[in-house]
Amino acid sequence: KHYYKMGPNWVKQYNWAVVPTTGPYVMSDVKKGKSVTFSKQKEWWAKDDRYNQHRFNLDTIKVQVIRDHNIAFRHFLKGELDTFEMILPNWWHEKAVTPEYKQGYVQKVMAMTDTKQGGQGVHLNVANPKLADLNVRLGIQHAFNIDKMIETVLHGDYDRATTFGSGFGAFTDIALPERAYDIAKAREFFAKGGYGKQGPDGILQNDRGERLTLALTYTSQEHSKRLTVLKEEAKKAGLDLELNLVDGATGFKVMLEKKHEAAWLGWGGGGLYPQYWESFHSDNANKPQTNNLFNVADKELDSLIDAYNVEFDMDKRAALSHQIQQRIYDLAIFVPGVQLNYVRASSWRYVMLPEVPATRNTPDLLYWPMDGYPHSSGGLLWIDPKVKEETQKAKADGKALAPITLIDKTYAHH
After folding, report:
1. Comparing C-alpha atoms, which of 160, 139, 162, 164 is closest to residue 149?
2. What is the pLDDT of residues 104-127, one digit of tens each?
3. Coil, strand, or helix at residue 335?
4. Taking the C-alpha atoms of 120, 167, 278 and 247 in order, what is their torsion angle to the nearest 10 degrees?
5. In angstroms, what CA-CA distances link 216 with 47, 97, 128, 243?
6. Whose CA is closest to 358, among 114, 111, 157?
7. Are 222 and 94 in contact (CB under 8 A)?
8. If you ran DSSP here, which 8-state letter would residue 92 be given?
9. Beta carbons within 10 angstroms of residue 174's beta carbon
10. Rounded to an integer, what distance in angstroms lies between the CA atom of residue 353 and that of residue 410?
11. What is the pairing mode between strands 197-198 and 204-205?
12. Which residues are within 8 A (CB) of 43 and not within 5 positions of it... i.e. 6 or more apart?
């Protein structure tokens, strides 16, 4: 409060001001829409703390705005960027095979993690009359071939999720059974829900001749291949998935206004414990601008969430968390998708990491080394000037170096 002074020009005064920070870096240069440069604070208050020893080694970090991932990759291969995020399987397996990789100038680094993760999958809007039927929702659960999507498009890299969020230790019910892709089961449930007749196109119909469709709203072009696999597999179970790609901001607005039929998205996994009230309590159902994308209003779920929110005995609270997850499972309002138990990136070979390159909770390996807050896991990398000189000379001379792919399993999720 010593810094901010309220007044009529508050936004104009502070919108681009450099605000005091508790972290190891401070903004030193901003080119609007192009780049932000951070410089290390020489006399950072926490530099001598044991936890921070050998972290935050870079003097300057420049974050550039390049809106197209493919263009950014070309900048990286030219040496204009030192690091490049490679979470998505098609980048790691299919695109990281250029001469720069084969000649060892750039490296691939991957570390297994065991991080807290939010729910990622299909959110069914039960306000829709068709989805209000539990049997239809159960049929949808068995019509999604998540395993095939992982094996094919995702190269087997991701894990199948079984709950809405994971990685919270005793608070995550890892015993919940996976609802596997099963055409016979799906059709059985659909028939109970009134869709028992197959139409000429293979899609099930009800007695009124209405086709069994599910409009799935999503916001990332990168996910189109994944959802195309799910669409083809769902058709075998008599369900027509209508894929609806919408611009990110527009799509999320549609979801928050509850105008979607089903939404494919993932939430961040922040917080010490799972948070249920915002996504599953009836307080947030049938209202715009809330995160209850399911529009679920269930008395049993409400009472469990209310008890969970005021319980301070950790064992009892964990038990309530399991009961909540079981109830969500029984309601079949969420089709669990995938969870990501690794971080990975590419960098030029002079960007160095410790022998164990990441912590258990590292959110991204080489992209954001500035976070200085107590919960952070960043800042482990450094640049070796000698290796940088050797790499640049080898590249100029056309001399190949040994290719590097580092994969660390210290914190592999079991």
Report:
1. 160
2. 999 999 999 888 889 999 999 999
3. strand
4. -30
5. 48, 34, 13, 5
6. 111
7. no
8. I
9. 11
10. 14
11. antiparallel
12. none
Identify the pLDDT of residue 372. Answer: 43
Per-residue pLDDT band at 374 (split at 50, 70, 90): very low
For the stretch 356-368, pLDDT in tens is 998 888 878 886 6
Residue 37 contacts by C-beta under 8 Å, 6 or more apart in sequence? 27, 28, 29, 30, 60, 61, 62, 63
pLDDT bracket for residue 378 (50, 70, 90): low
Hey, what are 318's tokens?
């964990």
Q: Cα 387–392–393 angle (5° rounding)? A: 100
Q: Which sign, positive or negative, has the C-alpha torsion 27, 28, 29, 34? A: negative
Handedness of CA 264, 267, 269, 271 (dihedral sign): negative
As to burial, measured by CB atoms within 10 angstroms (0-12 exposed, 13-18 middle, 19+ buried), residue 186 is: buried
Query: Where does residue 104 fall: left (phi above 0), alpha (psi -120 to 50 degrees), or beta otherwise?
Result: left
Distance CA 146, CA 277 (A): 27
- What digits encode the pLDDT tens for the residues 158-202? 999 999 988 898 999 989 999 999 999 999 999 999 999 999 999
The model carries a pTM of 0.86
The pair of three-digit structure tokens given for residue 209, joined into one six-digit string: 């001749």
pLDDT for the residue numbered 373? 42
- What's the burial of 398, exposed, middle or buried (CB within 10 Å: 0-12/13-18/19+)? exposed
Predicted confidence at residue 369, as pLDDT, reads 57
Mean pLDDT of the chain: 93
376 has pLDDT over 90: no
| Residue 301, phi then psi, degrees to nearest 5 | -65, -40
**Residue 53: pLDDT over 80:** yes
> Which pLDDT band, with edges at 50, 70 and 90, does 31 fall under?
very high
Rounded-to-integer distance, Cα 374 and Cα 385, Å: 29
CB 187 within 8 A of CB 240: no
- Contact call for residues 337 and 181 (beta carbons, < 8 A): no
Q: Say which residue the tokens 């960098």 belong to.
A: 347
Q: Of the candidates 128, 262, 125, 137, which has an alpha carbon nearest to the alpha carbon of residue 193?
A: 137
The Cα 109–Cα 356 span in angstroms is 11
Taking the CA atoms of 68, 73, 75 and 81 in sequence, report the sign of the dihedral they define: positive
